[in-house]
Amino acid sequence: xxxxxxxxxxxxxxxxxxxxxxxxxxxxxxxxxxxxxxxxxxxxxxxxxxxxxxxxxxxxxxxxxxxxxxxxxxxxxxxxxxxxxxxxxxxxxxxxxxxxxxxxxxxxxxxxxxxxxxxxxxxxxxxxxxxxxxxxxxxxxxxxxxxxxxxxxxxxxxxxxxxxxxxxxxxxxxxxxxxxxxxxxxxxxxxxxxxxxxxxxxxxxxxxxxxxxxxxxxxxxxxxxxxxxxxxxxxxxxxxxxxxxxxxxxxxxxxxxxxxxxxxxxxxxxxxxxxxxxxxxxxxxxxxxxxxxxxxxxxxxxxxxxxxxxxxxxxxxxxxxxxxxxxxxxxxxxxxxxxxxxxxxxxxxxxxxxxxxxxxxxxxxxxxxxxxxxxxxxxxxx
Length: 382
Ligand code: NDP
Ligand code: MG
Hints:
Blueprint (H helix, E strand, L loop, with lengths): L4 E5 L4 H13 L3 E6 L3 H11 L3 E4 L2 H10 L6 E2 L3 H10 L3 E6 L7 H9 L3 E4 L2 H18 L3 E3 L2 H9 L7 E8 L9 H4 L4 H4 L9 H9 L1 H14 L6 E5 L5 E7 L4 E5 L5 H9 L13 H4 L13 H12 L3 H17 L6 H13 L8 H19 L1
Parallel strand pairs: 1-2, 1-5, 2-3, 3-4, 5-6, 6-7, 8-9
Antiparallel strand pairs: 8-10, 10-11
């Protein structure tokens, strides 16, 4: 068999395409690729890197993929969760990059952990929904799990020496394109305005989350699971330049931070090559060129999504799963023009308020809470 490689779940997305690029640059073998429905790009990626296995989540896309790759020798898997799971668990896969968007990443991530794979996790919704179960399984199996989200990649590095001496995590965020705007002013924000982030180029859903600052709330929950800390141990700091990707403060008051360009290829490459840092295609930063950096407290009054997420983080149980799924549905409705920007918060808050709470949920109960959050928002909008 060929040397074990990397499976990229969601290879046609923003993180997936950059992972493909990083692997090509490093000469890493790619063993499997998946998409939701972008058959054209998946086929062109597959013909370039010749993975053993590919799959599309949508059934019709899967049929087209099969026709396009007929005779290529590349296996085309079934649609749905099964296709993703088989992509994650192939014998010729060593590490799985989970770069799908949304909680659809949860089931294949758990399967990959069970199959003994190393995990590079970009998909934060997986941890927000099922973090307690994922991390328990990671500990039980002794799995290597490296976060790809730039903040968590930074914290992972800063904590690598003396985690027991940590006092708190400092989670930075740019504040998004509407930093300083009031709720009255954000009323008129359109999808085109919301998907343009000042520093990062990302998929549509996470760009909207960055604008509402829901993203920072999801990241706080992600950090709680990854680093076994409480919400109270995480300080959110607004840092408009996106150079300090996050930091850790230790008991003696000193702070270790990780700085770098706002280029996801750096944390992606860290998750591929860890524990090493190898030469990268990203443009290095220069401190004299930057001159100065700015840090501010968050404005919770005008970013109610962040306040709501912090509240759900403290409540725990099924609250983060409902929050995240309701937010996915609300952001999709906003992007397709069915609700206004400020209604994203209204929908998610109503779902969190209206759906029953379970304190110590099983995986089944978490998946039900996720489904209930989505359904609540869809019914409210229609
Ligand atoms: P994109 O929307 O750009 O890409 C998502 C990928 O997942 C695409 O390949 C998409 O396929 C696939 N996909 C979407 N829905 C499904 C589904 N239901 N089943 C199977 N596959 C699906 O997202 P991003 O790359 O921006 O983000 C991916 C994840 O990484 C998110 O969880 C995000 O929060 C996280 N992240 C992203 C960052 C960024 O810079 N972009 C930074 C930090 C974290 P198709 O192409 O057909 O739509
Ligand atoms: Mg991030």
